[in-house]
Design goal:
By secondary structure, the protein is of the alpha/beta class. It is about 30% helix and about 25% strand. Helix 6 packs parallel to helix 7. Bound molecules: adenosine-5'-triphosphate. Keywords: ATP-binding, Cell membrane, Membrane, Nucleotide-binding, Phosphonate transport, Translocase, Transport.
Length: about 270
């Protein structure tokens, strides 16, 4: 499999504080499902946000689909961003707008400022919106305002908005941290389907080790801004989990429903 994303010695320092990320290097293959785990403040969100340049890295290189993203012109940067969908813990939807309007916002990266400002979408985009909402089980909610939806439904709208971009890569920043176990499973199953059936590469930040074990091809462990593990779920032994989370075993709270438990998952 070819590499979709390569991070080479990536670093990030906010202000004069300690390094949020230090010499991060790894690569992700096309079609891979990768989870990033680590304690609170380890740098997981910063890492994800550096990849699409929502946060500007302080050093190192990010190569996406063979192109060094630090060298992109403004136009090329916009095109690059449109190929990366992102979903967030708190969904980042416009609550007073309808589900369909929120989903269509995912097309803004492909539009002129004027077409975007007037909300002008073509028939193909509207059909696509309908199809994606159907795939995510949201057809009936299409014209509802987003503030009338449950958390799980809101996250599915977030996924739909990312999918309509026709992304190569989905970045998911704690997508299930605000959801109950059954909604969390629905979201993770959709992400798996997006990965396996649609072939979209998925990179997800997770707090739940057992969820990472169940869904990922590869798991990356981060502690204090550094990579301390990069391997398969099978290679993630109890000792290695403790190494990722440091001595603070209180971080290892596994509070998912039994349906999430993978065979042999470690519960501390
Ligand atoms: N905008 C910012 N300005 C200054 N420091 C920041 C900013 N964002 C994050 N940090 C710091 O960078 C470090 C990494 O934070 P980050 O949010 O990336 O960690 P995280 O692993 O995602 O944590 P959590 O799991 O709690 O969300 C922390 O020390 C944090 O305080």
């Amino acid at each position: 499999m070819s590499k979709l994303l390569v991070l080479d010695n990536l670093s990030k320092r906010y202000n004069k504080d300690a390094m949020a990320l230090e010499n991060i290097s790894f690569s992700i293959k096309n079609g891979e499902f990768v989870s990033i785990i680590g304690p609170s403040g380890a740098g997981k969100s910063t890492l994800l946000r550096c990849i699409n340049r929502m946060v500007e890295p302080s050093g190192g290189r990010i190569v996406f689909d063979g192109k060094d993203t630090s060298r992109l012109s403004r136009g090329a940067l916009r095109q690059f961003r449109s190929k990366i969908g992102m979903i967030f813990q708190h969904y980042n939807l416009v609550d007073r707008l309808s589900v369909a309007e929120n989903v269509l916002h995912g097309r803004l990266g492909y539009k002129s400022a004027i077409a975007g400002a007037f909300g002008i979408y073509n028939e193909q985009e509207k059909r696509q919106c309908q199809q994606i909402l159907q795939t995510l089980g949201l057809s009936e909610q299409m014209f509802k305002r987003c503030d009338q939806l449950s958390g799980g439904q809101k996250q599915r709208v977030g996924i739909a908005r990312a999918l309509i971009q026709q992304p190569r890569l989905m970045l998911c920043d704690e997508p299930i941290a605000s959801l109950d176990p059954s909604s969390s499973k629905v979201i993770m199953d959709h992400l798996r389907n997006i990965n396996k059936a649609m072939g979209i590469t998925v990179l997800v930040n997770l707090h739940q080790v057992d969820v990472a074990i169940k869904y990922s091809d590869t798991i990356i462990g981060v502690n204090k801004g550094k990579i301390v593990f990069n391997g398969t779920p099978e290679e993630l032994t109890t000792d290695r989990i403790h190494h990722i989370y440091g001595s603070d075993k209180g971080e290892l709270i596994m509070d998912e429903a039994p349906s999430f438990k993978a065979g042999g998952a470690v519960v501390v």
